[in-house]
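Why does residue order matter? Because the sequence determines the fold. Keep that principle in mind as you read this record.
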Amino acid sequence: MKILSSFNIKLTAALLPLALCATDAMAMERKDPAASAAASSITLTCSSSASLGKTKTISPRTRALKKLLYDKLDPMPPELIAIVVEYDHYEFKGKYVKTPKGHNGYRGRIHCLIQLNNGQIAFGLDNNIKIWDPPVDDGKGSCVKTLTGHTDDIQDIIQLDGDYIASASDDRTIKIWDIKGHTIWDIGSGTCIMTLTGHTAYIFSLIQLADGRLVSGSSEHTIKIWDTKSGECLTTLSDHKGAVKSLIQLADGRLASGSDDCTIKIWDTTTGSCVATFKDHTHLVSCLIQLTNDIIASGSWGGTITIWDLKTNSCVKTLTGNKRGISCLIQLANGYLAAGSFGTIKIWDPEPGECILTLTDQTDWVTCLAQLADGRLVSGSKNGKIIIWE
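Structure:
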């Protein structure tokens, strides 16, 4: 199955010759070339023609280039803007690649996992946040930082604008962390700069709106909208009859929430009013994602994935096949869906509604999924285990 993805990293003039000859660095490429990107294009962009003359595109093996750049990164001169890497023809085989070296399964629970903008992986382990350099060809991924401050399990982590992340916890607080460092792989002090209080029960979900406001959903059946500069709760949305397990902002700016009350609600974030309720699920709604401007997908504890049309507010398709509940759901870069459940991850083609692949090496609830910039899939589970798949 073909996966397309991209990411941006800064490039210095001193590193330009290295980038342009990165095809000579094949010795750093993985030993299994059939499982890696068959082709990639790398575009160098600058604000003037002084350095490059024009935009240049090259085709090295991407992981080799990343290692060249990250090992030697210097402050970026103003005329150079970015390097954009496009992956093509990544064949995702569903192969259990490795558990990151030094991570053989923590004694604890992992509820959330994301890839940060700098390529590192952040996940909640019980009441701590672990920051990992992801394993590459040699498998030497490592934990570079542990952020402490929460007093109960961390349920969600998101990256905010700039060098900040936010975490939501069963301790009823949201914390905002400064992860800015001196280089791209140095996470710095990991300082908690703000704690948002006001929820009276577990906080399960967290997103940032396009205007910078933070939104949280909790087991007290409410959704709160926060000002991240002042830490003030701006408004509370109260219409659900169960815990709010998932949140997404829709393309039109509205908010969608999934709940233990088996419903999905659509909210106007300006007025705070609920403008639509979807009631086709018969079990709690555990996860939501937006597929296109007018289409969203939801996963439920009944083991189904439901596709919804926002124009008609109706269910257009239901994907069945999971024996247990859907605990997490993401859309891969090629449009396929990856759904976690107890001991399994299923890959779905949503067009025909077919499961095309089942990954079975997890032994507990798969609680979180993320697709890395290089196309690989990473999963975290309730028993503290992280697996990299390709």
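The first strand starts at residue 2 and ends at 9.
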